[in-house]
Amino acid sequence: MTRYEKYNHILKSFQISKNSVFKAKDIVSFDSLEVQAGHFKLNSFFGEHGLLMANLTGQYPNVKIYTHGKRLKNTVLASTKINTAKK
């Protein structure tokens, strides 16, 4: 996640240096990032999926079970939302 924070810093610095007149609202950046993995079948979802997601994002994922389709199949979706540290 530090890559995205570095991206925000570099992008804001570049835009400020290139544009002598600017508004803080016009600077292109992002405030949050939503990461999702899925939809996995129940029998093919393992703890390693959550561990990988936790290592990539630095947060534990929220795991939700969805029932959908004509035959009411169950699937798993792992998601997390990351807010930037500096606002």
Structure described in brief:
With 87 residues, this protein is α+β, with helices and mostly antiparallel strands. It has two domains: 1-30; 31-87, no CATH class.
Summarize the structure in words:
With 87 residues, this protein is an alpha+beta fold. It folds into 2 domains: 30 residues; 57 residues, no CATH class. The protein has 2 helices and 3 strands, in the order H-E-H-E-E. It starts with a helix and ends with a strand.
Question: Mind sketching the topology for me?
Answer:
Blueprint: H1 2-18, E1 32-41, H2 47-57, E2 62-68, E3 73-83
Antiparallel strand pairs: 1-3, 2-3
Features:
2 domains; 2 helices; 32% helix; 87 residues; 3 strands; alpha+beta
The gyration radius over C-alpha positions equals 18 Å
Would you identify the regions where 5 or more consecutive residues have pLDDT less than 50? none
β-strand percent reads 25-35%
What is the CA-CA span between the terminal residues?
Answer: 15 Å
Task: Please state the overall shape, judged from the principal axes of the Cα atoms.
Answer: elongated
Class based on secondary structure composition and strand pairing: alpha+beta
**Overall average pLDDT:** 79
Please give the largest β-sheet.
3 strands, antiparallel
How many DSSP H or I helices?
Answer: 2
User: How many separate structural domains?
Assistant: 2
Helix content: 25-40%
